[in-house]
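Q: Structure tokens for this one, please.
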Amino acid sequence: MTQLIEKLTNAVPSWGAKLAYGETTTINGQEIMPVALVGFGFGGGEGSGELPEDGQGPVRSGEGSGGGGGGYALPVGAYVGGPDGLRFRANPIALIAVAAPLASAIGWSIARIIRAVR
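A: Here is the predicted structure, written as tokens:
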């Protein structure tokens, strides 16, 4: 188990920008490179022991281990090459998906500050 987590941890830095920037594609004479916000995480655990320590009741022993991981990619837009140079074109749906919780958190914070001042 520990070796698996160490292998994943060592591999993550080599992924780098490869995950956030896609392969350049040419569509109708324009070069397009997709861009995504990428996040991922891994975790693991292990356990053992004998319970209870207070000396009351039967002595129990236990073992356990587990692990997991996950990730996401949010397509935020693309770099598009054209006659006037390279331009970033945002994905409006992704921007709304990111902005809505952020705006909600800001609004909630402002409301809490106003209540605290009163």
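A few notes: The chain has one domain: 2-90. The mean pLDDT is 81.
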